[in-house]
Amino acid sequence: MTPIALERPGAVKLAALPPLALYVHIPWCVRKCPYCDFNSHERTGALPEKEYLASLFRDIENHLPAVWGRRIVSIFIGGGTPSLFSPESIDALLSGVRARLQVAPEAEITLEANPGTVEAARFRGFRGAGVNRISLGIQSFDDRMLSALGRIHSAAEARRAIDAALASFDNVNLDLMYALPGQTAAMAQADLQQAICAGVPHLCAYQLTIEPNTVFYSRPPELPEHDAAADMQLAAEEALGAAGYEHYETSAFARPGRRCRHNLNYWEFGDYLGIGAGAHGKISFPDRVTRHERAKQPRDYMDKGTCVDKDIPPAELPFEFMLNALRLAEGFDVQLFAERTGLPLTVIQNELNEGEKRGLLIRDWKRIRPTERGQRFLNELLEEFLVYRRR
Ligand code: SF4
């Protein structure tokens, strides 16, 4: 039965603007991984670091009127493989950002790095440039898995990269993947135990999924069955919980006090200015919420710098909000919905009731959060709000 909304969204009215973060996309990699659907491009020859920085600064300047006077609470330099840029370029990037935007002194500044592109001196350089958090794309500690994933690094390089990162940074995240081609439960556990032994404060564990427009999509490898993958996820949650990590978001685990502030801002439907080839942004105004999308090809981005800006229709805001906020194990404060969408919570009263009736979410006067079942079947829960968007 199609639920009937009590109220349809009218005008958006934001009482205050959300926190604003900055995402910087560096779109090159040494080699394209066969499972990757990110906007990443194989490097051919020397990277045009200076020219790209100039394009990033122009991108910021074009958007200054939209974010005027607002403070940047966190910066995430992602990709691609941003660690291919020299520490000098990252230094110039952060100086250029600070010259144009007001960056909070305590801002979390993350740089994504790939083992195989980094060594101790490079990490020291990134630290000196102002980066204070490193996210390492480890994926696995098993050479057979790394080779099946087409990664450029070996398990030994992964371990060396972790040691080198920890020598310069106390705030380090490791990305791991599970349900890999030919992977058994024991192999997934072994990967996880090595990650836990590394002693980093933050870990992300992602299930390998086959995405359109990837090599794996046209030539799919044999992957563990759905139930085996679900068991790996459960085993990961148990092992990380026992090791003192809080499972605070679908794929993210942190030691107390070490959650990723930049990603939390996305999940709490905060604003972000996204600069770089193919980067997206979300910027709120008192009466509307807007999205921005740049040209995907690095050459187009550098030559034309085109960016498509559009308002998010109010009817889509509830789904967009839930798509993010329901990833959080603790859900969200009931006030946050109105604060971030500019719409009263009553517009999704029926959807919330339905989610609760189906045992997918739970709420009281203060918070709304997914149940354990809702976390496991997040797509089912989100369907409720998708129905709302389509009406
Ligand atoms: S290194 Fe990361 S961004 Fe680059 S191709 Fe592989 S998965 Fe994609």
Structure description:
- The chain is built from 15 helices and 17 strands.
- It has helices spanning 49-67, 87-100, 120-129, 143-148, 155-168, 185-198, 215-218, 226-242, 261-267, 298-303, 317-325, 334-341, 349-357, 372-376, 378-390, and strands spanning 20-26, 28-29, 41-42, 71-79, 102-113, 133-139, 172-178, 202-207, 246-249, 252-254, 271-275, 280-285, 288-294, 307-311, 332-333, 361-363, 367-370.
- A nine-stranded mixed β-sheet has the order 9-10-8-7-6-5-4-1-11, with helices on both faces. It has a three-stranded antiparallel β-sheet with strand order 12-13-14, with no helix packed on it.
- It is globular.
Spatial arrangement of strands, main beta sheet: 9-10-8-7-6-5-4-1-11
Bin the helical content.
Answer: 25-40%
Pairing-aware structural class of the strands and helices?
A: alpha/beta
Distance between the termini: 13 Å
Low-confidence stretches: 1-7
What Rg, in angstroms, do the CA atoms define?
A: 21 Å
Q: What small molecules are bound in this structure?
A: iron/sulfur cluster
Fraction in beta strands = 15-25%
Main β-sheet description: 9 strands, mixed
Overall outline: globular
What is the number of helices?
Answer: 15
